[in-house]
Amino acid sequence: xxxxxxxxxxxxxxxxxxxxTDPLGIVWHGHYIVYFEDGREAFGRQxxxxxxxxxNAGFVTPIVKSTCEHFLPLKYGETFKIVTTFxxxxxxxxxxxxxxxxxxxxxxxxGETIQVFLDSNGSLCLYNPEFFQNWKDKMGLx
Length: 142
Prior knowledge:
The chain is α+β, with helices and mostly antiparallel strands. It has one domain: Thiol Ester Dehydrase, Chain A (Roll), CATH 3.10.129. Helix content is 23%, strand content 31%. Strands 1-3-4-5-2 form a five-stranded antiparallel beta sheet, with helices on one face. β4 (93-101) and β5 form a beta hairpin. It is elongated. It starts with 7 loop residues before the first strand and ends with a helix.
């Protein structure tokens, strides 16, 4: 479990683009996974764990599981916020939870992704890579 003082989050504001909507005028369900990616990238920039940082350390982090629950629709032109939370784990993986809120601060969608570490040979890392453990230590997540 994670103590409250060590919970890392990031909030990113986004505007729905026309090409993200379907013939019903609402955001097509597949775009929410892209919004999760926007949240992860913003989180990485804010907290010093970008995809480039991971790549420069010699690793990649493919997604092995994603979930997404929809509660309300988003429409073209609306702004919304993505709240991305890092879930600390003793395992060598990145777990992020997402909440998307509309302009009225209503929960539109929630989900989670799990990513694992692969080294430069494509082998699964069973233990936290050194750079990642150092990042966790710096963030108070050890």
